[in-house]
Amino acid sequence: MMARVHDGVAATGAARRAGGRPREFDPAPVIRAGRELLEAGGLEALTIRALSTASGVTVTSIYRNLGDREGVLSAIADAYAEEISLPELPEDPREQMVTIFAHAYDQLVPQTWAIPLLGQSRQFGSATMWFSEYFFRAADALGVDESASVEACQQFWAFTIGALQTRTRDDSPVHRSPAAAEKIAAAAEERGFPRTLRFLEHSNGLTRDAFIAGLRRMASSLGDDQRPA
C-alpha cells in the first residue's frame, strides 16, 4: 500500500482520498523524539532532520507547526515544565528561596537532557516561571528592591545550573596519577598554598548538601538592612 503523509505523519493514501479534514497536528511524537535525542546525544543531536526521522513527522510539518530548532526546544521545555510539581513553601522568606531552588535542583537531577537546555535559557518553559515569581515574592517580604531581587534571582539560577552541571554524589578525593599528585603537591608547597592543595584534593563538583548550604549562604545575604540591629 502506498504511503502518504497526513499533516506530516505517515498514513495511507486511500485514507486521504476518502475525504474529511486532516487531523490536527499532534506535537507529542515530536516532543517525545526530541527528548530521546537530547538524552542520547545532547543539544548537538537535536536537528530537525534527525527529529523528523525519529518521530515519523515530516520536516515541513515540524517547521510549519513548531518552527525552527529553537521552537522545538521551547516546545520540549514547555511540555516538561508541565510535569514539574510545586513544593510546599515554608513561612520564612529566606527558607522559601532555598526551597524553591532546592526543588528545581531535585526535579532536574534525573533529567540530564534538560540541564544543557536550562543553561542556555532560564526561561525553561512557561510553567516554571513560578520559580522566579515566588523568589521575587520572598525578596519583597525581605524588603529587597526590584533590581537587587532580579540580580539575586539570576545568581540563584546560575548557582543551581552550575551545581547541576558539576553534581557529585559525595566529596570523595580526586583520583590522579602518582606523578600528577606529586607535581601538584610540590607546586603548592613551593608557593605556600596548603589550603589550595586541600581544595584540589577534592572534586570540583558539589554534593546536594553542599548545594543547599550554598543556597542558605546566598539567601542570608539578602535583606540584611531589614534585620534588627
What's this, in brief?
60% of the residues lie in helices and 3% in strands. By secondary structure, it is mostly helical.
Largest sheet entry: 2 strands, antiparallel
Helix content: 55-70%
> What is the overall silhouette?
flat
DSSP strand content: under 5%
Q: What pattern of helices and strands is seen along the backbone?
A: EEHHHHHHHHHHHH
Number of helices: 12
Ordered list of secondary-structure elements with their pairings:
Blueprint: E1 3-6, E2 9-12, H1 13-17, H2 28-41, H3 48-55, H4 59-66, H5 69-81, H6 93-108, H7 114-120, H8 129-141, H9 146-165, H10 178-191, H11 194-200, H12 208-220
Antiparallel strand pairs: 1-2
Helix pairs in contact: 2-3, 2-5, 6-8, 6-9, 6-12, 7-9, 8-9, 9-12
Detailed description of the structure:
β1 and β2 (9-12) form a beta hairpin. The radius of gyration is 24 Å and the shape is flat. It contains twelve helices and two strands; from the N terminus they run ββαααααααααααα. The termini are far apart. The chain is mainly alpha-helical and 229 residues long. The protein has helices at residues 13-17, 28-41, 48-55, 59-66, 69-81, 93-108, 114-120, 129-141, 146-165, 178-191, 194-200, 208-220; strands spanning 3-6, 9-12.
